[in-house]
Amino acid sequence: MSFLEKMTAINEENRCIKDNHRRELAEKFELRRKLYKALVRDPTLPNEVRENAFYKLSKLPRNSSFTRVRNRCIFTGRPRGVYQFFRMSRIVFRTLASNGMLNGVKKASW
């Protein structure tokens, strides 16, 4: 089994599935959440409208907030040390880069 196959086998863990579900929910409720937040923050609106928007905002699912989404490595599911551009952890990045499996990435020398 190659290095990539081992790493992708680990990706099927429950926490990655949960994170993907959170991403889907955040995308689904994004416009509604932004609308309610804008209504709540607008001081020119009557208090009744703002309270109603705040109530509706509180009834949205918690996992629909973007703050609950975590950047994870696409190979290992590791939550820390993830390079956003490559969407992989520093450990996987170093291994793949040193094996020459990432196009355009080479070790610096000067």
Automatic annotation (TrEMBL):
Xref: InterPro entries: Ribosomal_uS14 (IPR001209), Ribosomal_uS14_CS (IPR018271)
Record-level GO cellular component terms: mitochondrion; small ribosomal subunit
Recorded superkingdom: Eukaryota
Family matches, as Pfam families: Ribosomal_S14
Keywords: Mitochondrion, Ribonucleoprotein, Ribosomal protein
Coiled-coil region: none
SUPFAM superfamilies: Glucocorticoid receptor-like (DNA-binding domain)
UniProt-listed GO biological process terms: translation
Subcellular location field: Mitochondrion
GO molecular function: structural constituent of ribosome
Protein family per UniProt: Belongs to the universal ribosomal protein uS14 family.
Protein name: Small ribosomal subunit protein uS14m
